[in-house]
Amino acid sequence: MVGKYRAYPEYKPSDVEWLGEVPSGWEVKRIKNTAELNPSKSELQSIAAHTDITFLPMEAIGETGSIDCSRIKPIREVINGYTYLGEGDVCLAKITPCFENGKAAIMRGLVNGIAFATTEVIPLRCRTTSTAEFLYYLITCSPFKEQAEGSMYGAGGQKRVADSFVANYHFAAPPLPEQRQIAKFLDHETAKIDRLIERQEKLIALLEEKRQAVISHAVTKGLNPGAPMRHSGIDWLGDIPAHWEVNKIKNICSKIIDCKNRTPDEVPNGAYYVVRTSSIRDGEFHKEGGYQTDYASFEEWTQRGVPKIGDILFTREAPTGEACLAPANLDFCLGQRTMALRPDSQIMTSKFLLYTIYGPLVRDQIEQKSKGSTVGHLRVGEVGNLPCLVPPIDEQQSILDHLTGMHSKFRKLTANALQAKVLLKERRTALISAAVTGKIDVRDWHAPDESESLAQEVA
User: Fold this and answer.
1) Is the bond leading into 307 cis (omega within 30 degrees of zero)?
2) Are 306 and 317 in contact (CB under 8 A)?
């Protein structure tokens, strides 16, 4: 990062070990010297109780400085129990994982200049010695986040950054004109990077859409465009290969194993794994989604059967209709709302059934049966009655070979896009950190004209 931009001509010791040297014209301060934490609600005493204001739950605060001001409430409903913010204030999410994810923003466009937010944010109001824009970038840069993460208090998912840490955080403050210039530089450069990240996200979404389209066509139309066709009996599905059978999952499975009505007891460090619905998503098994149990629970919960290699694990709820191949080399039992489907190998292969479950015929039925339900619950009998198309076994294998090759290509393209997204995010973070800590000198920077900026992005 320093190689692309020049450094300051002169530095001085900061006398803060982790901060190191800072530009000679900058002054080491604490945040509390330049900003007020938690401004008092007393300044709202003259505001009528029915006055509309912006309401900001955590989901309304973005990870790149955005806020959603669409939620509006009368001030009387939120003045107690929520955190007060005014137009131009800076807010910082203090609870994990929102803090680590970079949830912070400058308050802009508030209804009547007032917001009340979740109590899990720290509000900061700049004094005349600092700008909100520079402060926002300061509290989202890597040095600040690294120091803050090391100071968090609490346990597990309830860790928080203390107000006292933020107040006493040391940083090197440039003169006000320089703060504005740094913020202007970062606004421009991070916006370019954010547009590039958005392109990668759109590419990833398009690749997934294309992948799903390939699967849908293969498991409903086959690979031979010249094959005789017949109407499926389902208007939206149209024609299917004439020699394919329309059947139900219960008729193509030799065994369907359902869990008991509740999940086995959790036993830390137990020798047996309990599959939960969170273990199964996007066609893959995720071990971190489950937990361990002991031999007694394992024996009790496998009375209805033990899933085997080649079985399909299936979720009946939250999220409904996720599936994956049963994992190998793992002693496990089914948790609540999970099932195992064992296809008859003479009728359908396990992998073809897995692709079928993610095909349009099964997805449509799951969606229809989940309408009106907040959790999208499926009963065991409804799972068994899910329709499927059954090609001959040899044709299933040809389709699988085709899908395996296509899946490999899509996975490679998606991995490349994900890696590009990671690198862009790292570049964004490094640029912010370099600018707000004085590692690069942007005092003479000027925004390129529109055509020059576009050419740089394309390059």
Assistant:
1) no
2) no
Find out whether 428 and 193 touch, Cβ atoms under 8 Å. Answer: yes
pLDDT surpassing 80 at residue 449: no
Residue 157, strand partner residues? none
Q: What are phi and psi of 336, to 5 degrees?
A: -60, 140
Residue 456: predicted pLDDT? 56
Q: State the CB neighbour count (10 A cutoff) for residue 125.
A: 17
CA distance 405 to 354: 16
Tell me the CB-side half-sphere exposure of residue 155, using CA atoms within 13 A.
0
DSSP per-residue string spanning 63-121: SSB-B----EEEHHHHTTTSEEEETT-EEEE-BTTTTTTT-EEE--S-GGGEEEE-TTE
In what helix (H) or strand (E) does residue 43 lie, and over which residues does it extend?
none
Cα 150–chain centre separation: 23
Domain presence at residue 83: yes
Distance (Å, rounded) from C-alpha 340 to C-alpha 324? 10
DSSP state of 125: E
Are residues 284 and 164 part of one domain? no
State phi, psi for 403 to the nearest 5 degrees: -70, -35
SS3 186: helix
Q: Which residue has the higher pLDDT, 184 or 449?
A: 184
User: 167, 161 in Cβ contact below 8 A?
Assistant: no
* Domain final position from 384, 412, 430: 384
Q: Which ranges of 64-175 does DSSP label H, i.e. alpha helix? A: 75-78, 132-138, 142-151, 163-168
DSSP state at residue 60:
G
**Residue 234: what pLDDT?**
87
Range of the domain at 338: 246-384
Query: Please, what's the b/e burial string for 36-68 (b: 16 or more CB within 10 A of its CB; e: otherwise)?
Result: eeebeeeebeebeeeeebbbbeeebbeebbebe
CA distance 323 to 285: 8
d(CA 309, CA 307): 7
CA-CA distances (angstroms) from residue 5 to 52, 265, 439? 46, 58, 9
In the predicted model, is pLDDT for residue 404 greater than 80?
Answer: yes
Q: Exposure of 452 by Cβ count < 10 A (0-12 exposed, 13-18 middle, 19+ buried)? A: exposed
In a domain, 153, yes or no: yes
List the structure tokens of 8: 């300051």
Domain boundary at 169, 191, 208, which?
A: 169
pTM greater than the 0.90 cutoff? no
Task: Identify the DSSP state of 105.
Answer: E
